[in-house]
Amino acid sequence: KVCFCDTNGELGTKTLSELQSKYGEGNAMFQTCDVSLQQPMENLFKKVKETFGCLDIVCNNAGIGGEVYPLWEKTIDVNLKGTTRGTLLALEHMRTDKGGKGGVIINISSAAGLNVNPLSPVYSATKAGIIALTRSLAMNSEVKSAGVRLNVVCPAFVDTDLIKEINDDNCLDVQKASKFIEMIGVVSKEVVVDCFMELVRDVNQNGAVVKCSKMDGTQYTSIEVKPVT
Ligand SMILES: NC(=O)C1=CN([C@@H]2O[C@H](COP(=O)(O)OP(=O)(O)OC[C@H]3O[C@@H](n4cnc5c(N)ncnc54)[C@H](O)[C@@H]3O)[C@@H](O)[C@H]2O)C=CC1
Ligand SMILES: CC/C=C\C[C@H](O)[C@H](O)/C=C/C=C/C=C\C=C\C(=O)C/C=C\CCC(=O)O
């Protein structure tokens, strides 16, 4: 069973029909919802719990690019605040100490958050924030005891609309970006899905940061962690 949300109602409804005809009407739900808004997101999580009984897997995936005002602020609202909101709501519904059944949260960051990207600094900062948020919660002893794992996927370039829409609003130098993307290469959506599924299925993965790139393949990063006592 799956529920997904998007601000694009038309695309969401089309995808919902496809999922329902493949997996059955009662097994897929779509809600138009903006991840940057608290109340609609709270309502959505409640609705999923009422409809499906519990939440086992949550993916915070919504993301945009924007480097000039007011788009840079929206980029922080959607990418960093939206992912934080979705993560905290997911935790609330999944934690065994709050009546949940445990589960796994997968957040979608970017290689731009692992590395730096001088052509999209605001985007890059939001994606670095997502990595820090996810790893920090994954290492929190109370979250661990409550049966929730958190992992993060950092794709380099993926064949989606996001990289087809590079312009002066979301990039500081479109020509340089195009050359950079050509150099790194672009992976298919399936590569990211495989990585996502591995992090869902492997119960030993908690706090994992995985980069998927055409140039380097799929790599688990190793960042030294000094345990907080
Ligand atoms: N395409 C790429 O090269 C890469 C993408 N990513 C990340 O992957 C994730 C998915 O992006 P793509 O599928 O590539 O882009 P996309 O542009 O095809 O899809 C993003 C989706 O998010 C939705 N969305 C935007 N703002 C929203 C909001 N406020 N609330 C709810 N939904 C909203 C859009 O309507 C769209 O359907 C994003 O977080 C992106 O930053 C990360 C690295 C590389
Ligand atoms: C170069 C892109 C510039 C602008 C793009 C816009 O901001 C756009 O809206 C979205 C960008 C999405 C970027 C996705 C991935 C970015 C990856 C990197 O910047 C770094 C990739 C590889 C670095 C080499 C490595 O670490 O392996």
Automatic annotation (TrEMBL):
<keyword id="KW-0560">Oxidoreductase</keyword>
<comment type="similarity">
    <text>Belongs to the short-chain dehydrogenases/reductases (SDR) family.</text>
</comment>
<dbReference type="GO" id="GO:0005737">
    <property type="term" value="C:cytoplasm"/>
</dbReference>
<dbReference type="Pfam" id="PF00106">
    <property type="entry name" value="adh_short"/>
</dbReference>
<protein>
    <recommendedName>
        <fullName>15-hydroxyprostaglandin dehydrogenase [NAD(+)]</fullName>
        <ecNumber>1.1.1.141</ecNumber>
        <ecNumber>1.1.1.232</ecNumber>
    </recommendedName>
</protein>
<dbReference type="GO" id="GO:0016404">
    <property type="term" value="F:15-hydroxyprostaglandin dehydrogenase (NAD+) activity"/>
</dbReference>
<dbReference type="InterPro" id="IPR020904">
    <property type="entry name" value="Sc_DH/Rdtase_CS"/>
</dbReference>
<dbReference type="InterPro" id="IPR036291">
    <property type="entry name" value="NAD(P)-bd_dom_sf"/>
</dbReference>
<dbReference type="InterPro" id="IPR002347">
    <property type="entry name" value="SDR_fam"/>
</dbReference>
<comment type="function">
    <text>Catalyzes the NAD-dependent dehydrogenation (oxidation) of a broad array of hydroxylated polyunsaturated fatty acids (mainly eicosanoids and docosanoids, including prostaglandins, lipoxins and resolvins), yielding their corresponding keto (oxo) metabolites. Decreases the levels of the pro-proliferative prostaglandins such as prostaglandin E2 (whose activity is increased in cancer because of an increase in the expression of cyclooxygenase 2) and generates oxo-fatty acid products that can profoundly influence cell function by abrogating pro-inflammatory cytokine expression.</text>
</comment>
<dbReference type="GO" id="GO:0047034">
    <property type="term" value="F:15-hydroxyicosatetraenoate dehydrogenase activity"/>
</dbReference>
